[in-house]
Amino acid sequence: MTQTVTPRKGLLDIPLYVAGAAKAGHANRIIKLSSNENPFGPSERVKEAFAASGAALERYPDSGHLDLRSAIGAVHGLDPARIICGAGSDEVFTFLCQAYAGEGAEVIHTEHGFAMHKICAQAAGATPVEVAERERCVDVDAILAACTDRTKIIFIANPANPTGTLVPEADLVRLADAIPAETLLVIDGAYAEYVRDPDYNGGKALATTRHNVVMTRTFSKIYGIGALRVGWGYGPQDVIDALNRVRGPFNLTGPAIAGAIAAVQDQDYVQRCSIENEVWRDWMTKELRGLGLSVDPSHANFVLARFADVAAAQSALEALTARGILVRNVASYGLPSGLRITVGTPEECRDTIAALRQIVGMRT
Ligand SMILES: *Cc1c(COP(=O)(O)O)cnc(C)c1O
């Protein structure tokens, strides 16, 4: 059979998404700090709700996610009618690109920005446009300079992944003020709950008041239910209505909806995890700098350690993996001399720093 059926033009150029490592050779204990998961897992209330949801597996879930949208709206002070839920926020990015950015459209993402922004644009047939960052920070002026009359979407993760940097609120407002009226600004707040900066609102102020700003959130990070795949977006009513046209019915499973409702209602747990994360994020930053590595201040639940060169990062990655410590190689993000390390439990953080002290020490 030499004949093949050809996929749509450009489709095979899309790089496959590479997930953080999950396995390490023969190490008997694995410390997984490669995917920014909550090291404490979900709250007890989530585990109970998820277990209870197993009693009605024959039932289709609520296709419109009304209870989940209402719970999110109540907790965040948002209109549930202007919320859309997806199988992870990745699915919301897909809806956005399908609805607003087909063939001929340009979608802006930033130099070290999250891989799925670009992948979703390409999958919809749009042209991704990469915009340079300044010292690993999103550069609002460079984004404005890259806008054309074909720019349909601008994706910014704030805090950014894998850099952990934050765009100040004033810059976001300046960006929203100056983008073309026909362009959607998507503020991806996957790490919003980790930000301790009092000025930060995760895009809520803009998504509430502007006709062309959408914010997204996820249950995969601080809420600790990446396995259930739930994310959401909030924006102008007409945008949410358009996204609902491309959303398949029943895109979230019943157990996922039940788990997410319990998760969003347990804000005490979120608060405790965020405070604990801040303590150990700052400790990791200080310790890594003490080992001679460069680390920007992070606003998320990971730190990006920059080594002297690519070889040093690569050998540290291998030595950590051999000890069962999995961190993220970020070469595909244009940061080949960096390693992204999720903030783990206190014990995991201490063990990782102790291992790196040995590894870095052996090289000098
Ligand atoms: C992890 C992450 C997401 C979340 O993706 P889900 O599909 O909701 O699991 C979104 N954006 C960024 C920048 C992330 O790092």
Automatic annotation (TrEMBL):
One of its GO terms (molecular function) is histidinol-phosphate transaminase activity. InterPro entries: Aminotransferase_I/II_large, HisP_aminotrans, HistidinolP_aminotransfase, PyrdxlP-dep_Trfase, PyrdxlP-dep_Trfase_major, PyrdxlP-dep_Trfase_small. Pfam families: Aminotran_1_2 (PF00155). Its EC number is 2.6.1.9. Its cofactor is pyridoxal 5'-phosphate. SUPFAM superfamilies: PLP-dependent transferases. Residues 30-355 form the Aminotransferase class I/classII large domain. Keywords: Amino-acid biosynthesis, Aminotransferase, Histidine biosynthesis, Pyridoxal phosphate, Transferase. It comes from the Bacteria. Pathway: Amino-acid biosynthesis; L-histidine biosynthesis; L-histidine from 5-phospho-alpha-D-ribose 1-diphosphate: step 7/9. GO terms for biological process: L-histidine biosynthetic process. It catalyses: L-histidinol phosphate + 2-oxoglutarate = 3-(imidazol-4-yl)-2-oxopropyl phosphate + L-glutamate. The modification N6-(pyridoxal phosphate)lysine is found at K221. Belongs to the class-II pyridoxal-phosphate-dependent aminotransferase family. Histidinol-phosphate aminotransferase subfamily. Homodimer. This is Histidinol-phosphate aminotransferase.
